[in-house]
Specification:
- The chain is an alpha+beta fold.
- The protein has helices spanning 32-40, 43-51, 80-85, 93-97, 118-125, 142-145, 163-173, 181-192, 194-205, 210-223, 228-231, 233-254, 257-267, 272-280; strands at residues 2-5, 29-30, 53-56, 59-62, 100-105, 108-113, 132-135, 138-141.
């Protein structure tokens, strides 16, 4: 059985309309089956592919350009492999599946969309109704999906806007491994002016949408449900509340909730090390 959020099936890559393409800034690993196909692909495209791939004992990857772009990412934001062949079948697994994720828990597959993708963020934030998770012929909220694992308080976002809570949160996030210099600079700026952060958070508290932040909280918690047995509900609930609180704080300061959520995911959700650090507290 596969479980997935209610917006999963309507996801479509924004392609050239995406401001933060996943074809730039990420190492692109090529699965073994696709690498084998690329090695024998005839014609000019096959030659281009082989000239654009590095192979080591650990596997094959695309050679990124100097500005960290996939060599097949066109100036218009489209994939030249797809444009040349007219089919997504030419893609390696990671390109075909991203930003989808899958986790196996007791014979059940938890599927979803990584929030480092701006289109996934848009879909999550587009609704104010409770987030539902689909399984076979039914759709249920997170509370029903997880049984009695989490209390009502754990599943309700509760913004904290006092200076002590905000600074403690930022200190915890400062222990994570930064994805880039911009993330480090943002954290440093937030920590350097606690009064401004608190002021922005207090103002945002009067206008934020609690239903939207409950959706954010539930989705962040859902992403880590495969760790429920090993880490326990209290640790996962604390991690999710802190994550939603961090998004709340950065959205309050920047005025851009979708980007605050996307950057959080890019920095935290895509690093097992950073998730481990934050769940451990």
């Amino acid at each position: 059985m596969t479980i997935y959020p209610d917006f999963y099936d309507v996801f479509r890559c924004a392609a050239s309309g995406c401001r933060h393409t996943c074809c730039r800034g990420w190492e692109i690993d090529i699965d073994a089956e696709t690498a084998a196909r690329y090695r024998v692909l005839p014609g000019e495209l096959g030659e281009r592919l082989r000239a654009s791939i590095t192979e080591t004992e650990s596997g094959a990857t695309f050679c990124l350009t100097e500005d960290e772009r996939c060599p097949f990412l066109r100036a218009d934001g489209l994939c030249d492999l797809i444009r040349t062949t007219g089919s997504e079948d030419i893609l390696c697994d990671v390109c075909a599946l991203h930003p989808r994720f899958f986790a196996e828990v007791g014979g059940v597959t938890l599927a979803g969309l990584g929030l480092c993708c701006e289109e996934a963020c848009r879909l999550l934030l587009a609704e104010k109704k409770p987030l539902l998770f689909c399984a076979e012929d039914r759709a249920v909220p997170l509370a029903a999906l997880t049984g009695c694992a989490f209390s009502d308080d754990m599943l309700r976002f509760q913004p904290r806007t006092d200076e002590a809570s905000c600074m403690a949160l930022l200190e915890r996030y400062a222990r994570t491994e930064p994805i880039d210099e911009a993330w480090t600079a943002q954290l440093a700026a937030l920590r350097a002016d606690a009064a401004a952060c608190v002021c922005a958070a207090e103002a945002y508290r009067t206008e934020y949408d609690s239903a939207v932040f409950d959706r954010i909280l539930h989705y962040i918690l859902y992403r880590q449900l495969d760790r429920l047995e090993t880490d326990g509900p209290l640790a996962l609930a604390r991690y999710a509340q802190d994550a939603a609180q961090f998004v709340f704080l950065t959205a309050a300061v920047t005025g851009d909730l979708p980007e605050a959520l996307r950057r959080w995911s890019e920095q935290i959700e895509y690093s097992t090390e950073n998730v481990d650090i934050l769940i451990a507290g």
